[in-house]
Amino acid sequence: MLRVLLSLVAAFTLFFTSSVYAHPGKTDANGGHTCRTNCEKWGLKSGEYHYHDKNGNIIRQTNKATHPPDIRVNSKHVVKVIRVVDGDTIDVRFSNGATSRVRFIGVNTPETVHPQKPVEKYGKEASNYTKKRLTNQTVTLEFDVGVKDKYGRFLAYVWVGKELYNETLVKDGYARVMTIQPNVKYQQRFITAERKARQQKKGLWQS
């Protein structure tokens, strides 16, 4: 009889933990997620970001911890690359755990993931090159005057040590120069790099 009671208690505990605390929902790169439905049932507010421990218990986080740090003009931030979207776009994690999408300033690689455009010539090569170079790497983002684009993505120069990766993409023929005001700090460097890539018929400039 005692064994039966203990089994019932264990089953009830497991059901309560998994049902009440470990509510469904996809997690992000940090292992957390935002409550979207039936939030009060779980003791959360709608839109509240949180994690679950190994037992399914909710670990509440402050909103500040889920947002990128304050990005100022001409500032620099060390981040980790958690995903390469295509040749000139990456997802990164800031030091406070927040994740954001970053578009490289001043360059444009051929499209590979555009919903309304086919994969463009040399697009896969550019995307694969950036994946090889940046995936899971720690890099420094340098911001210019315009911090975000109209899609809400951060705009940045990406430094791998002392290497300006935006420039590397152009120099090796993986990207064209694309200057958009007011972010023009390294414009001349990119133009020079593209001229050399054209002359040497590198990458997308091959005949």
Tell me what you see in this structure.
A five-stranded mixed β-barrel has the order 4-5-6-9-8. It has a three-stranded antiparallel sheet with strand order 1-2-3, with no helix packed on it. The chain starts with a helix and ends in an 8-residue tail after the last helix. Mean pLDDT is 82; it is low at 12-21. The radius of gyration is 23 Å and the shape is elongated. The chain contains five helices and eleven strands. The protein has helices spanning 2-21, 63-66, 123-134, 165-171, 187-199; strands at residues 33-34, 49-52, 58-60, 76-86, 89-93, 99-104, 107-108, 138-142, 154-160, 163-164, 176-177. By secondary structure, the protein is of the alpha+beta class.
Helix/strand class: alpha+beta
- What proportion of the residues form beta strands (DSSP E)? 15-25%
Shape: elongated
Q: Give the distance, in angstroms, between the N- and C-terminal Cα atoms.
A: 83 Å
Q: What does the main sheet amount to?
A: 5 strands, mixed, barrel
Average residue-wise pLDDT: 82
Give the strand tally: 11
Please compute the radius of gyration using only Cα atoms. 23 Å
Main sheet: strand order: 4-5-6-9-8
- Please, how many helices? 5
H/E element order: HEEEHEEEEHEEEHEH
User: What low-confidence regions span 5 or more consecutive residues with pLDDT below 50?
Assistant: 12-21
Helix content: 25-40%
